[in-house]
Amino acid sequence: MSTPQPPNTNPSRVIPLTCSGHTRPVVHLQFSPITTDGTYYLISACKDCNPMLRDGPTGDWIGTFIGHKGAVWSAKLSKDASKAVTASADFTAKLWDTYTGDVLHSFTHGHIVRSADISEDSTRIVSGGQEKKLRVFDLNKPEEPAIEVEAHEATIKSVIWDGERNVVLTAGDDKEIRAWDVRGFNQINSYKTEQPITSMELSLDGKYITCTAGKTVYFIDASTYQLYKSIDTQYDVSSVSLHRDHKRFVAGGSNDLWVRIYDFESGKELEVYKGHHGPIHTVSYSPDGEIYATGSEDGTIRLWQTTPGKSYGLWQSKATKDEKENEVNGID
């Protein structure tokens, strides 16, 4: 089957920033919320075993977390970005101090860990993976899991701690999203997809569970677990991220090189860009909605402007650069 051709765009105006440093495919990205100092951060998971922390608006490298012995499948930041939790093929999930880069604790599992998350108050860790079990660790007593549940009939691909509703969400290769009450970890709801689930995230405002399975993008109401809408594409979708204004979303494909922007209401494809040299495994919008990040099989992260040409981060217009040069040179 031929690769779908992109619509007419103005590629000269779309110049992504390339963030190098990883040596293997980048498989998961997450932006932090905007922190008290007014900035935000980006964390990446990669098959090279070394998750990385970056400044969000610029993509500048801050540090690398050293300690995993296998591919890292997911990496997430705490609400205040002071801690990170990672899930790895080395049969561990790890909790990190983002200021020092030190491992605060390593949580041993019986098989590959595909996803982990941290509670909003940073007191508990949840994990899932090849064992099909949902585990919760209390960070005050981290040696053994406080809770262990047989959660799915196949590999768990994603876990999310939804603090607003006091539930944990899990998604698996058994084509199902399940919601678990954190008080007793009983299953309280579920949603079934047509194909195995490849990714799951919460929208920035927590309103929608965004999910990809096969060639379909799903937007599920996070309060009712009922489908709000689904959009069929012509390619295998690997990841999706909804813009904070709910007017557009970005999607990546596991079999082609295009970054695609869609209208949320109509599902119409608005923009298509090529910048990677391998399939796109993960996409994510920044918390202010100004940029989105893409991670690829080619080992790079690229940052793209939501509004190309706008002065933001390292994208400075000629007028802005001239003003700064004039300031330096003392010219009014």
From TrEMBL:
The keyword Transport does not apply. Keywords: mRNA processing, mRNA splicing, Repeat, WD repeat. WD repeats lie at residues 65-106, 149-190, 273-314. Pfam families: WD40 (PF00400). Gene3D superfamilies: YVTN repeat-like/Quinoprotein amine dehydrogenase. One of its GO terms (cellular component) is SMN complex. Coiled coil: none annotated. SUPFAM superfamilies: WD40 repeat-like (SSF50978). GO terms for biological process: spliceosomal snRNP assembly. GO terms for molecular function: RNA binding. Belongs to the WD repeat STRAP family. This is Serine-threonine kinase receptor-associated protein. It comes from Paraglomus occultum.
